[in-house]
Amino acid sequence: AAQEGFEAEEVEGVLGAAGHGPLPVLAVVGRPNVGKSTLVNRIIGRREAVVEDRPGVTRDRVTYEAEWAGRRFKVVDTGGWEQDVLGIDASVAAQAEFAIEAADAVVLVVDATVGATDTDEAVVKLLRRTGKPVVLCANKVDGPSGEADSAMLWSLGLGEPHPVSALHGRGTGDLLDEVLKALPEAPPQTFGGTVGGPRRVALIGRPNVGKSSLLNKIAGEERVVVDALAGTTRDPVDELVELGGKTWKFVDTAGIRRRVHLAEGADYYASLRTAAALEKAEVAVVLIDVSEPISVQDTRIITMAVDAGRALVIAYNKWDTMDEERRYYLEREIETDLVQVQWAPRVNVSARTGRHMEKLVPAIETALAGWETRVPTGRLNAFLGELVAAHPHPIRGGKQPRILFGTQAGTRPPRFVLFASGFLEAGYRRFIERRLREEFGFEGTPIHLSVRVRE
Ligand code: GDP
Ligand code: GDP
C-alpha cells in the first residue's frame, strides 16, 4: 500500500535519466487525456504508438531518447501515471514534483478545445515555483480554426501558447524549436568542468596541515600541470597525478604550494580557495594535523565539503608524531567534533614518513562509490515499508504522518525524495538517514533527504 499510485520502475526510469545521463531532460506534463503521450510519441518519432483512449493507462516505460535539429535529449512521459489511485489533481501535482526534481525543462500540455481548467492553473502554479523553463503546448489544434482556442491560453501567464496537433503533427516542429531554446546546451554541469576524464580531487585543510607535503609524497615528480588560470594572483592550477594505477586530477593545487603566511585576511582567502577547489572537485580529501587539537577551522572546512555535496575522505596527517596520550585525546575530539561525518573513510597518514599512503586511493574510491550509489526504487520502497512498519512516526496532534513512497532523485551525492502524508520531524528524518546508511552503505558521501507532504 505504501507505493500506491506510482509504478516503481517508471519513476526509476524518470529519475535515473536525470541523475545519470549526460543528456538534458524534458518532462511532458498535463492533465490526463490532453494528449501528452501522443505528443511524446510524436517527438520521438514513433508512429505506431501505444496510446489508449482511456485515462490512467500505465505504460511500461516513460523515458525516451529524442533528437531534434541535431540535438539529443530525453523525454519523460508522465501520461501513464495512475491518476485513478491518487486523484487527478494529486497525479498532476506529482508530475510537477517530478519535473522539479528530474527535468531541465517542462512542456505543459493543455487541451485547447477544453481551455484552461482549475487543474491546469494549479499545475502552472507548481511549475512557476520550480523556476524551470516551461513551454506551453496548446494541443488538439488540428486546423486553423483552433488557433483562437490556443490564444485563449495566454491567460495561464506562461507566455505564448504554441498551437499543436500532436495527433497530426501540426505545429510540433515550432514547439520543438522552443523546447531546444529552453533546454541547456550541454549536459547540466553540477561539478564544474566536464563529466568524465580523471576523477577530480580537492586536497584541502587549514594552512600547515601538510597538504603540499602530502601531494609531493604521493606524487613526487609525476605531477603534470594541466591548467592554469592566468591573471589571478593565486594562479590556481590543476595537476594530473598517477596513483594506484590511475590518473587523478588534483584541482587548484597552487593554493596548496603557496605557503599562506598569516597576513591579515589570509583566512578569508584560504577559505575562498577551499570553496573554489570544492566547486571543481568530485571528492574532497580533508587533511587534519594530529599534532594539534582539532580546531574550529578544521571542522569548518569539513562542513564546507559536506555542504558542497562532495564525497569526503578525512586524512589524519603527521601520524609520525602520535603518542599514546595524544591518541587518547584525538579519538575524543573526533567523537565530539566530527560526529556528523562518521561516515567518512578515515586514513591515518604521515606525509613525512610515507605511512599508509597506499590507503589513500582505496579510501577515495570508496567515497566516490558511495557518492554515486543508486538504490533501485523497488528496493528502497521495500526497505521504507519495513522501516515504517517497525518504527512508525510518533503520533502528533492525533495524526500519524506516514511515508507513502520514496525515490532516489539523484546521485553525486545521493538525493532522496520521500512523499509523506504529513510533516516528518527532524529526529525521524535523521533516523531514516541513519537507517539508509546502515542498509545501503553510502560510505564517504553526504545524503540529501527531502520530504514532500501530500494532503
Ligand atoms: P494523455 O493522457 O495526456 O497522455 O493523452 P493521450 O496522448 O493518451 O491522448 C488522449 C486522447 O486525445 C487520445 O484519444 C488521443 O488520440 C487524443 N489526442 C491527442 N492529441 C490530439 C490532437 O492533437 N488532436 C486530437 N483531435 N486528438 C488528440
Ligand atoms: P600546507 O600548508 O598544508 O601545504 O602544509 P605543508 O605541506 O607546507 O606542511 C607544513 C609543515 O608541516 C611543514 O613544516 C612540513 O614539513 C610539516 N609536515 C607535513 N607533513 C608532515 C608529517 O606527516 N609529519 C610531520 N612531522 N610533519 C609534517
UniProtKB/TrEMBL annotation:
User: Magnesium as a keyword?
Assistant: no
Q: What does the entry list as the binding residues for GTP 2?
A: 205-212, 252-256, 317-320
Q: Which residues bind GTP 1?
A: 30-37, 77-81, 139-142
Q: Which CDD domains match?
A: EngA1 (cd01894), EngA2 (cd01895)
Pfam families cross-referenced by the UniProt entry: KH_dom-like, MMR_HSR1
The GO terms this record gives for MF are: GTP binding; ribosome binding
Q: Which PROSITE patterns match?
A: G_ENGA (PS51712)
Q: Which UniProt keywords apply?
A: GTP-binding, Nucleotide-binding, Repeat, Ribosome biogenesis
Q: Does the keyword GTP-binding apply?
A: yes
Q: Which InterPro entries match?
A: AAA+_ATPase (IPR003593), G_ENGA (IPR031166), GTP-bd (IPR006073), GTPase_Der (IPR016484), KH_dom-like (IPR032859), KH_dom-like_a/b (IPR015946), P-loop_NTPase (IPR027417), Small_GTP-bd (IPR005225)
Classification via SUPFAM superfamilies: P-loop containing nucleoside triphosphate hydrolases
UniProt record, GO biological process: ribosome biogenesis
The EngA-type G domain sits at 24-187, 199-372
Quaternary assembly: Associates with the 50S ribosomal subunit.
Explain the purpose of this protein. Answer: GTPase that plays an essential role in the late steps of ribosome biogenesis.
Per the record, the similarity remark reads: Belongs to the TRAFAC class TrmE-Era-EngA-EngB-Septin-like GTPase superfamily. EngA (Der) GTPase family.
Q: Per its record, how is this protein called by name?
A: GTPase Der
Query: Where does this protein come from, organism-wise?
Result: Streptomyces carminius
Whichever gene encodes this chain, its name is: der
